[in-house]
Amino acid sequence: MAEEEYLSARLLTEEMKHSNGDFVPPEGLCWVSVLFCLLLACSYVGSLYVWRSDLPRDHPTVIKRRFTSVLIVSGLSPLFVWTWREFTGVRPGPSLLALMGIRFEGLIPAIILPLLLTMVLFLGPLMQLAMDCPWSFMDGIRVAFDPWFWMLCFSDMRWLRNQVVAPLTEELVFRACMLPMLVPCASPSTAIFTCPLFFGVAHFHHVIELLRFRQGTLSGIFLSAVFQFSYTAVFGAYTAFIFIRTGHLIGPVLCHSFCNYMGFPAISTALEHPHRLTVLSSYLLGVLLFLLFLFPFTDPSFYGLPTPVCTLASSPSSLCLS
Q: Which domain of life is it from (predicted)?
């Protein structure tokens, strides 16, 4: 049944393409798509360096300036997709906003299920955090509903960058805008692993600041850059998977914000924890449950079949089916 719905939507998309004037994909579509993605990535990273300053990246003044330039580039990023569409002649059935994951159908599951799935993966770190936290559960609930707590958070430039601006703008640019341009020239599976390369390379700019302020040895900075590229590439593939399966932007944004808050799991600390067996068991259980729920929690039938970006695929993909 899901495959029939998918094929019906694909047929409708093809009819709309031909009704707009005998759509023929141009030769070199992939090269054009990669070029547009590269320009978009360069524009995003370049916007961070339009401000000349001798201050470190965590200084409030630097953060505020970068907010301005990044938000401008992110706001203009849909124009890259629109220009790509006009240049290539690709005429998808869904609207531009729907292709970018901005739609109402399946919104509630898209808010809850991907974030819940990510929290399952972080079961070990969450268990470790709960054990080491001096607060009781009720104290945590009271803080979560305290308006003053959230006012302090939103007045902290670093928190605002890590939990709001970076997740929103990076997922908009590197997932919502790039995947609709990559899927037509490659399968959704290939796009999932291609898109994160732009995201990973974009984080190499941190090396410039580490070298500039001499924050570590050259070899240490290089190893840190390689690790960060690997971690961000894997994470980018995960959020790209969520975007294609759910067809929503909100899920990747919330997962990104949650992962920024949690950071990379402190496995070395877990190995030295007083309750090591419990913590390590939670790590293992979290990974197993994550693998078990990965496809059920992202079943496209929860979010409206087919997801808009899947209608751009040249052939049916198992990722787009429930």
A: Eukaryota
Tokens representing residue 156 in the block: 């902290």
Name the nearest CA neighbour of 93 among 12, 198, 166: 12
Selected catalytic residue, list 3, 5, 59, 203: 203
* Separation between Cα atoms, residue 65 and residue 59, nearest integer Å: 10
What tokens does 267 get? Answer: 């496995």
Instruction: Copy the structure tokens of residue 62.
Output: 């630097």
Q: Which residues of 127-139 are buried (b: 16+ CB within 10 A; e: fewer)?
A: bbeeeeeeeeeee
- From CA 309, how far away is CA 246, in angstroms rounded? 9
- Which residues contact residue 146 at a Cβ distance below 8 angstroms, ignoring those fewer than 6 apart? none
Report mean pLDDT in 10-residue bins for the chain, 322 residues. Answer: 51 45 58 92 88 82 93 96 90 88 95 98 94 82 89 94 96 95 89 86 64 66 77 92 96 97 89 91 97 96 88 82 80
Are residues 187 and 30 in contact, defined by beta-carbon separation less than 8 angstroms?
A: no
Q: Contacts from 259-267 at CB under 8 Å and sequence distance 24+?
A: 259/118, 259/122, 259/235, 260/162, 260/163, 260/166, 260/167, 261/162, 261/163, 262/122, 262/125, 262/126, 264/231, 265/122, 265/124, 265/125, 266/125, 266/128
C-alpha 101/C-alpha 175 separation (Å) is 9
State the pTM of this model. Answer: 0.87
**Known catalytic residue: 203?**
yes
d(CA 265, CA 274): 17
Place of tokens 């998918």: 6
CA within 13 Å, CB half, 59: 9
Please confirm, yes or no, whether 18 is among the known catalytic residues: no
Tokens describing residue 295: 């496809």
The b/e string for 34-60 (b: 16+ C-beta within 10 A; e otherwise) is bebbeebbebbbebbeeeeeeeebeee
